[in-house]
Every structure is written in C-alpha cells, then in structure tokens.
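Tokens in:
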C-alpha cells in the first residue's frame, strides 16, 4: 500500500508566529488521485497547500513525498521534485503577454526546454493559444486561470496543488477546468485541491478530507461524501459531529 501513497502528512504542526493552524495533522494522498480538502473557513485547508509547498515551515511532524521527507525544503527544491502550486486569486504579470507569462513559468527549466514545452501546454487551452500575443490583463477571468494552470503544467508536475480554482469563473469555465484536472489525474498527476464549490468538486475527486481546527475529521471516498445528506452541514463546520459515522480511509 505504501507505494501507492504520494503525499503523507504525519503529526504536522504549522502556523504563523504563536498561532498554530495545523494541529497534529496526519493524512495520506494516493498517487494519481484528486483529493479535495474541505471544511469551514479557518480549518487549515489553504495552510496545508502552503506548508507542502514550503511557504510555511512546519514546527513539528513529517511531510513525505514518495516516502522522502520534504518538510522545510525550499520552493526551488520542491519544484525540482515535481510539486507545482496554483494559488488562489490571480498571479499573472498583467502587462506581459501570454507567451511571456509562460516563459516566466518555466524559468527554472531553461528557455530551450520551456520553449519546447509551451506548444504542448497550449494544446490543453485552445482559447489561450489563440491569444498567445495578448497581454495577460486583457484575458477574461477564465482565460487567466487557465493560463495560470498552464504555467504550472510546463513543469510536468508529479503533484499539482490548486487553491480555489473556480473563484470568479463562470460555471461553464469551471467545468472545463475540472475536466482538465480529471484528465491530468488520469495521466498520473496527483492533485490536492481546495475548492469552495464542494458538490461540483466532489464529482471529479477520488477522495475527500474534511478539516476542522487543523485536524482531519473525515477522510472518505468522494463518492461516499457526495451521497451524504449532511454534506452542507459538514462543509459549514459540523464535520466533527458526523465523525462517528465516517469510515476513515487508511
């Protein structure tokens, strides 16, 4: 079973100064799966992604990637190990063109490799490809999010961390993004996602982890949670109350 595990948090404590957000957090993420992190505001969902990507250093505990410790590693080292992060909000250089933004996304690869990979990435995003010479600021919100994801895909990541991909997007564009994530997982990419559109995200996810106060209170197949009539209550903060009914995924 261990060889099927891509990411493992083991007793992780992390936060800001004296305020700890992750409290002895432990969970495992299966290789090639989409795992959805859910829970109320402040539960620690985005902090998990930031800690895994080296933006926060854990105070204690282990973070493993393919069985190797990566806790406290630099972002450059994590990129080299195949972890890419698409944060919440817009993170583009608006005055630069789509192509120039892609070039910057591949800066750690070298320009020769980056230029070779840009055409293959653009095949995922036909509309962005059409606007390759436009300023990034002139793109619609959906096109900008697709460009951000494309920039991450230049790295051919083993692990894609993505925080709230649907914010500001139309329902049709959200479905396009979700279909792309499902396709990437089918090709072997492990995806750890935070998403406020819980029901739609559960439909494309393999597993779901509910957090409360920086601890896991549910870890179930996404299909089981989607069928749970208490899903809205769980998301809004009542996950702990449903814990006895949940069968944890080992």
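Residues out:
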């Amino acid at each position: 079973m261990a060889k099927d595990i891509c990411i493992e948090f083991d007793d992780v404590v992390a936060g800001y100064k004296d305020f700890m957000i992750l409290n002895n957090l432990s969970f495992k993420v299966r290789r090639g799966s989409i795992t959805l992190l859910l829970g109320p505001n402040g539960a620690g969902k985005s902090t998990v992604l930031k800690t895994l990507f080296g933006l926060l250093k854990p105070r204690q505990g282990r973070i493993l990637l393919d069985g190797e410790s990566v806790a406290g590693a630099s972002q450059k080292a994590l990129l080299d190990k195949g972890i890419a992060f698409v944060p919440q909000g817009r993170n583009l250089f608006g005055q630069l063109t789509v192509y120039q933004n892609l070039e910057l996304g591949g800066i750690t690869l070298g320009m020769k490799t980056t230029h070779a990979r840009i055409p293959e990435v653009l095949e995922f995003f036909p509309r962005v490809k059409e606007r390759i010479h436009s300023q990034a600021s002139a793109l619609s919100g959906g096109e900008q999010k697709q460009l951000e994801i494309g920039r991450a895909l230049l790295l051919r990541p083993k692990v894609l961390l993505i925080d709230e991909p649907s914010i500001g997007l139309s329902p049709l564009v959200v479905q396009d993004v979700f279909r792309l994530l499902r396709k990437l997982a089918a090709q072997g990419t492990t995806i750890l996602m935070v998403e406020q559109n819980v029901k739609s995200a559960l439909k494309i996810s393999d597993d779901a982890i509910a957090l409360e106060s920086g601890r896991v209170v549910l870890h179930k197949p996404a299909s089981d949670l989607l069928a749970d009539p208490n899903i809205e209550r769980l998301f809004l903060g009542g996950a702990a109350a449903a814990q006895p009914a949940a069968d944890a995924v080992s």
